[in-house]
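User: quick one, fold this
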Amino acid sequence: MQHHSPTEHQKPPPSTTPHISLENPPTSTNPPILLDKRTPPRMHKPVIYTTAHGRFEALTRDNYRTWAKAMESILRIEGQWDHVTGKAKCPVLADGGSNQKEVNDFHITQEKAALFIRLGVTELVLNYIDEMPNEPKLLWDTLQSVLDPTASWSGQAHLKNEFLQAVPRPDEGVVEFIGRLVSIQRKLAKTDKKISNNDIIDRALLAVGIDYASTINYLRNTNEQDINTVITCLANHEQVILADKAKQKAKTTSHDHMAPPAFVHHTSSNVANYNRPTTKMQTSPNVSTPQ
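Assistant:
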């Protein structure tokens, strides 16, 4: 496997983030206290983690859930996931060492799982686990407690509040907006703050705005209301709105580009030959007559 390191300007300065103490390992109820809480900007080019099973973006402060799914798949394929969950237990060495190979295989697999995790993170994130022993479960739980927003009550509350205040972003379509709501729903699915499909429907109808009033009234009065119906109706209404805006823009553009009245550029040679009309010009009500 290969780990493409970030360029020099992407590397954090040394010792900006304190290491997590091994004497007080973090848990979901006791997350580590990080003195440096600055969030770095997103890298222009993501750090790519390459394995025999594919390529994916290395772990940053912003992509934990995507990274965790990809890393779990790789560790399962490699037969190492039980070492992350703690399900795998080291066999007790028998008298005479008859099972020495099994014990050695356990430790080798454990080391490999820890190596996969360490190589799959950016150097900034590596600071969180750099001095920890090669125990896959400890490494995984630490990264989750620090970077997974759903691992703590405050993180769950933040996501729920984000959902309750969500509105379509500029240039974000209805389908994309509802997709963002569904993404938050999935993150909170296994927590006490889980979100139902009806919650998504209510939030969507409340947030899309007055332009969708007729469709909103129809959906609120219909007996059968499911998320797919809501998406379809709002998306259809959105197309009507976009078509009307396009027509209005075309009309405005056409009006702005109407050819102006032709005027002669007078020079010293033709000014003397110019005779002002003596009869009143016939004009439309919207065009003024030169005085």
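User: anything notable?
Assistant: Confidence is low (pLDDT under 50) at residues 5-44, 266-291.
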